[in-house]
Amino acid sequence: MGIDKDAVIEHRAYARVGLLGNPSDVYYGRTISFTLANFWASVKLQPSDHLMILPHPAHDLVQFDSLPHLVNRLSTDGYYGGVRLLMAICKIFHNYCKENNISLHEGNFKLSYDTNIPRQVLRMIFLTGLSGSSAIVCAALSCLLDFYKVRHLIKVEVRPNLILNAEKELGIVAGLQDRVAQVYGGLVYMDFDKKLMDDLGHGNYTPMDLNLLPPLYLIYAENPSDSGKVHSTVRQRWLNGDEFIISSMKKVADIALEGRTALIEKDHAELATLMNRNFDLRREMFGDEALGAMNIEMVEIARRVGAASKFTGSGGAVVVFCPEGSSQASLLEDACKKIGFAFQPLEVKPSMLTQEDLETMSSK
Questions:
Q1: How does pLDDT run across 242-260, given as a tens digit for each residue?
Q2: What is the SS3 assignment for 204?
Q3: Distance in angstroms (rounded) separating the CA atoms of residues 299 and 289
């Protein structure tokens, strides 16, 4: 087979910030998202005699001090960790290749993962705000593509679907936005028009210039609680034809379209307006109980100093734009410290697509 057993493949995938339009990606809408260099997951693949999925020493804990320790851990973190994610993407990748007549060599490997996400916010990011679970899956998929040397055979546009299918395998409810942003990297405008999705199996994803973004900030709760029932009943109401939900979700999708123009024209006043409107529409649809008091407070603490703010995803973290610049950001940082929220500037991660990836995009 010619496999070098000492050759290690390692890839990173970065946290995602939904800037505008979320959660309309689940409803044939549009979004603008970017990858966040502050947080990432990395996956390492090393050829091996046997296929092995290695548990993380902290996030896949299987040894406890006592039964109460185990129960407390489950109460705070749930049944979460990365091993199940790695196993799921291996299955989805294998099945996709088999269904599409993509030959895979018979070599085995061991997979391991790590993350720089602080322990106290790991559960929040796995579940809601910054798409930590899909980052692990995305990085693992990149390792598999390189190990089997099939990167050129699986189009970039298709890869987010594989990541989403792996998470669906585990009962994770989500949309394509996060996975598209993490596969492409950088700043991406996404159109999930129903006809596109039905005809192609994916949307139209357009990378944008990172320099169009103004300075942005992140707020998150270091000790998250009261995260709300983030998915609420909105999905079912949309499926049932609820006119309010359908019309509101279309308005959210239109915000991404208008936001694309605002970014291109560097109309920062309009950008601030759109960010606030995005959250307000979400709040009207989902309701305060579903969103959670702490999540709402993270949005409102920014607004109290005149900044624009909205969820990065379903909750748990907030993206902030300070139209008045660094002095306004300093005011907000002080306010966050007083209440116990973490506050930091966002660093956007540029696109990580390879030349080989770009060639798969051009051969539709």
A1: 999 999 999 999 999 999 9
A2: strand
A3: 15
